[in-house]
């Protein structure tokens, strides 16, 4: 668990809100990031239900991609409670050597999965 979740949240927030028409609101007590008038593409959880994790949760293209990510790096990726069965993947952000470029790429890809065609055709991210 991150000793300073606000610093980690600030980095996730910067990455998520850099996406076109991205906004933030609480979802079940935790920050969630969505496209204005659209769908959520990322969430931030810190010690959710006392699990001891500081994570960002993002969409994948489906269960196959989710499984591939988890298999490729199980220390970083895992299937989060509630959302995992729908293909979302959690990224552990409580280590000292978090690859923020990788986190940013996953957040951006998740945004692309829910972005309306008009945003994608306008150049996306």
TrEMBL record:
<dbReference type="Pfam" id="PF04237">
    <property type="entry name" value="YjbR"/>
</dbReference>
<keyword id="KW-0238">DNA-binding</keyword>
<dbReference type="InterPro" id="IPR038056">
    <property type="entry name" value="YjbR-like_sf"/>
</dbReference>
<dbReference type="GO" id="GO:0003677">
    <property type="term" value="F:DNA binding"/>
</dbReference>
<dbReference type="InterPro" id="IPR058532">
    <property type="entry name" value="YjbR/MT2646/Rv2570-like"/>
</dbReference>
<protein>
    <submittedName>
        <fullName>MmcQ/YjbR family DNA-binding protein</fullName>
    </submittedName>
</protein>
